[in-house]
């Protein structure tokens, strides 16, 4: 929130210099960058903020020059077509991942704004001002210390240390919840913590490998957490409650990670079961890794990086094609409708449609309802604030700048709910539009937003050629393949433990992504949800299969062979998986 409030400085300077429209472009850059800002390490924030910002600058260039080079009588035909083609490409790219989704969104939003927002600056200046605003927020992200950190140096690996410490804490929470009805949710929380730590340590850097002793130490401590997570998952699978001392050592290790110190005496669990023996061995290895700064005693877990061809495969696959087609239809239809209804200020409608059609913001129907409610509340609040502030002895521009600053600070808080975020962004954008010279834009934005909601709701439920539910289907296919690879490695009796941990990580990560996609699809209206009926059952069986495989791996390490009971359970789960796949609609 502090960064959001301070991000108004470029706008303030532009207004003071008599260039409010330049400040509007800079503020737009900070606004869109603030929407992509998330808690986490500084290194990952560089990619998460800069890549969409560069795409946004390209969108401004494309939109501005598409309008400038198209004769006025042809714009009603050419501009919707240009935006539709961009929507097809950017929509497909958005299927690659979260950062790619931000790239596609900013490209389309700024293309619509560049093509339709009447500003005196040429396209290249708009792009530069936009980049300046986004760069200012990125600078604030890198310079301001992260709050709530207990590390020695708030600028050095603070987010990475916090992410790795969260893994040890999640392992301890899972051990505490073993034998209770909280075990399943704790295991899911452990998967999330492992995913976040893996992403934090795989963030962009100047060199391929860890470049300092502190970073190498942190990598070794993350590697030490992987066998602990494996043992904790196996213990949770048995369902037998554990004594409190079993989790105490993991909490001590979490504190040592945060403070970058060596832990003291760590209480060892009992060794009367295979899972407890595995946990004790993992604790001993972890203490050794902490004590030797990661130079000996533990092999480093291998992490898998998705190659470029994997991203291209997702973009050109069924999910990317389906999403690209719907984005293209929404963007082209909204741009054409806006040009016909309000040819002078038509950009708001397609820009609204871009945010609504994004599938990673919740189910389609709830997105539309939240957008309607948020827009109405935001517009009414803006009109009320303008009325209240009118008697205040402040120049009009200064009052709008102050309003932008307040809304910028509230964006991180509003990110917790799409309707609240929409209300805050509506007030902010209306203030920016007022600074750009459009003083009577409030209720026009409301009608444009309502029309965009109707278009997106209609296009989102239109039947398209081919099968539906491609996102869920692709996620389930990836999860099934990852689970099969992990199971095959365990059944082979391989002694490659780092390879096993890497396969286990891939299996649980893909399962979490599949679970998210299935839950999102199930929350849609029946017209869409029916295309993925039974997918939740497939995901549940896959989760049990991976949990059982983890327990079997621990038992194999302990006894030197796979127990017959585990073999029977794995065979039964494979049969149940085939049955669930046959029943599922997707």
Structure description:
This protein is mostly helical and 586 residues long. The protein has 24 helices and no strands. The radius of gyration is 26 Å and the shape is globular. Residues 294-305 have low confidence and may be disordered.
List the helices and strands and how they pair.
Elements: H1 2-6, H2 9-16, H3 20-36, H4 42-69, H5 75-94, H6 98-116, H7 123-143, H8 158-177, H9 183-201, H10 213-238, H11 245-259, H12 274-291, H13 308-316, H14 318-341, H15 348-357, H16 364-389, H17 396-414, H18 418-435, H19 442-460, H20 470-491, H21 497-522, H22 526-529, H23 535-559, H24 564-583
Share of β-strand residues? under 5%
Profile the largest sheet: none
Let me know the average pLDDT: 83
Task: Tell the overall outline.
Answer: globular
Question: What can be said about this structure in brief?
Answer:
75% of the residues lie in helices and 0% in strands. By secondary structure, it is an all-alpha fold.
Provide the descriptors you would attach to this structure in a database record.
single chain; 586 residues; mainly alpha; 24 helices; 0% strand
